[in-house]
Amino acid sequence: MTVDPRTPVLVAVGEITSRVDTINDPIDLATEATRLALADASAPIADRIDTVASPGILLMRRDNPAHRIADAVGLSPGRRISCPVGGNTPQYLVGRLGTDIMAGTCDAALIVGAEAGHSARLARRTGTVPQADPASGVDAVMGDDRPGLSPIETAAGIRFPHEVYPLFESVIAARAGHTLDEHRVWLGHLMAPFTAEAARHPGQAWFPTERTPDELSGIRPDNRLVNEPYTKLLNSILAVDMAAAFVLMAAEVAADLRIPRDRWVFSWATATCNDVYFPVQRPDLGRSEGIRAAGTAILQGCGADIDEVRWFDFYSCFPAAVEVAIEAFELDPFDRRGFTITGGLPYHGGPGNNYVSHSIVEMARRCRAEPDEVGMISGLGWHITKHSLGLWSASPPRNRWVDADMTEQQAAIDATALEVVDATDATETATIEAYTVMHDRDDGPTSVPVYARTENGRRVVARSDDREVASAMSGGMFAGHTIDLKPADEHARFGTEFELT
User: pTM for the full model?
Assistant: First the structure.
């Protein structure tokens, strides 16, 4: 098969997981992953790298990471790029930089990121947070830098992913006919295979321990409820010290550098598409039209079928992210192929924006070992918001490489956004669509945030801080119940005892 000489091909991978109880700087971790990747190419490639791109570092923050990493490794790229928040970033960069490679404006790109969340925690305990010297320059910025939630959502106390994803989970649970308690048990069965995969990667996974469904879903002192239905072991873990790097270049450059053919892994197709950006405006909080659209685009773009995919790595910050991907592709939740090649963010570890670099590294290994097979990777940013998907194989793409144009699909999704009720106008009744019962580490149920729909179809965010209401709603299923809204200074309120009719 003739390969377009500008086809993007991955030629080098490297990653590191550091479990030592000494304080690592994320730039040092990223530097080591880069050195491992440069060695993995089995040919000198450093001088041809003209672009360094890095997902943003969340914990032990370092500004301008692309400048810092390039300088530390001794690279002299013409472009140095960093990105805003988004777990989709590494796969997104494959699309953006792959387009540049096809156009001839980039020959070889290093994509590298790191997190030192474990070290950041150690540093806070000891009061020795390391400082960094000023970077040698300012990175160009690539990506969507909008915040993940609207002001009306944050005003209601919904601020962090571990508070948002349980809301999505309640919609999925209601659709399945489960109470929150029943659904938590089901989630243990869904996620147990992820722990088994993590256990197969003792050198990479932060928690390489296979666990039973009951160990994941059972409530115990070491596995408390966080926000229902999620226990601690069903949450992504950010406090890890990890870095991963890979190099993407034009096929003709790889040939010119005489990189052995058994190092090559082709990007077949990529696509990026958002759901309605803010969750409060999404018509269905338990599905992802963005994943569905991007997945359809990459399969059609390279003439493939979902049944041909041998390996999946669906982004797994929380179970809901996995479930909406399964639903988007109409797969069996217990498909024998499984949905992770690393163990996922709760068990492999969730190094912030850079997790997908680790899944790309592992996908490259698998493709090299079985060159005729195809793998799919999904990256996800914010709250089931930003989606970047890609297909990978050591065999050349059947069609010309494509980063799918999603303009029409994105416009169609954006057009479905709901009108939102301002908190000061919340004086009517509404039907709960999504909710979670938030738990204090020691005191149990504390509050209940909800997304609800008014009789005229508008979406409202409300919250009850009545502990009796929170206790009464714990473990059950109240999606579909009616609440009486009351305006408050910052957000709508509901419930003093049982205004749940």
Answer: 0.96
